[in-house]
Amino acid sequence: MTKYVSFRRPDGAPGFGRLDGGEIVELAAAGGPQSLKAALAEGTLAALKDGARFAAADIVLLPVIPDPAKILCVGLNYADHVKETGREQKEHPAIFVRYADSLVAHGQPLVKPAVTDRFDYEGELAVVIGKPCHKVKRADAHAYIAGYAPFNDGSARDWQRHNIQFTPGKTFPGTGGFGPALVTPDEIGDLGALRVQTRLNGQLVQDQPIADMIWDIGTVIEYISAFTPLAPGDVIATGTPGGVGDKRTPPLYMKAGDKVEVEIGNIGILTNRVIDEQ
């Protein structure tokens, strides 16, 4: 299975490539794209030749797309989560945004904001856009997808509820995990059968199939692309299943020292430790 990653080389310079066992194979071309996002935009990813090889231990992973122009997140997209929040299911998806500096890579620490003790996990499937799209129909939407990756929409619950808009609680720096790798749709098989599973310190806290989404991926892309154009490298986080820590009795929030994992079948496992904001 081909998995594409963004990373920093041993000399600190950014690069991108594919996983090959315990190594990273840099993808390169003379005068070619300098990032995974650029390769998607140029449509050259599958044609790039192998470059330098690095031991996985010698590089530092970056978020799958380190610099997305847009990160759009779907709220309340699983019925179990709608029910546990006590909210009313609406006719259209709830959409909010994150910023690129809110993302960290697989293996990098999630940062619990100093201003909250209600830092919650939200395991999700992320969609990465591969081609420009605007006002696309649901039936055509999958043609614009470059691939998928695990995502953890870490949330400061109290800040999320300061008012009716979610954004203040959803985009503190370093609070969202994204990785480890981009997996193309042709590698996955039956996407709907894969389960979004989140573990906190080894305890399974979320476990639901992607097929349980209220608004499927095609519908989400149709809805979002109706109000904003999407570009290669843009990211859509498709919503979290039931089981969030905020709605447990007693609540279960992330704290410094915790280990949180988001696993989505053969797409991969996103692992992050939690640290306090310095």
Report the uncertain regions: none
Distance from N terminus to C terminus (CA atoms, Å) equals: 38 Å
| Structure annotation, total helices | 4
Instruction: Report the CATH topology name of the largest domain.
Output: Fumarylacetoacetate hydrolase, domain 2
User: What is the CATH top level name of the largest domain?
Assistant: Alpha Beta
Question: What is the tally of beta strands?
Answer: 20
Going by CATH, the architecture of the largest domain would be Alpha-Beta Complex
SS-based structural class?
Answer: mainly beta
Sheet with most strands: strand arrangement: 7-6-18-11-12-14-8
State the domain count. Answer: 2
Overall description:
- There is one protein chain.
- This protein is mainly β.
- The chain folds into 2 domains: 3-62, SH3 type barrels (Roll), CATH 2.30.30; 71-276, Fumarylacetoacetase-like, C-terminal domain (Fumarylacetoacetate hydrolase, domain 2, Alpha-Beta Complex), CATH 3.90.850.10.
- Helix content is 10%, strand content 36%.
- The chain is built from 4 helices and 20 strands.
- It has helices at residues 36-42, 79-85, 157-160, 217-227; strands at 3-8, 14-20, 23-28, 49-55, 60-62, 71-75, 94-98, 103-104, 110-112, 119-120, 123-129, 145-153, 155-156, 176-178, 182-183, 195-200, 203-209, 235-237, 259-264, 268-276.
- The strands form 4 sheets. The protein has a 7-stranded mixed sheet, covered by helices on one side. Strands 1, 2, 3, 4, 5 and 15 form a 6-stranded antiparallel sheet that branches. A 5-stranded mixed sheet has the order 9-20-19-16-17, with no helix packed on it.
- The model has no long low-confidence stretch (mean pLDDT 95).
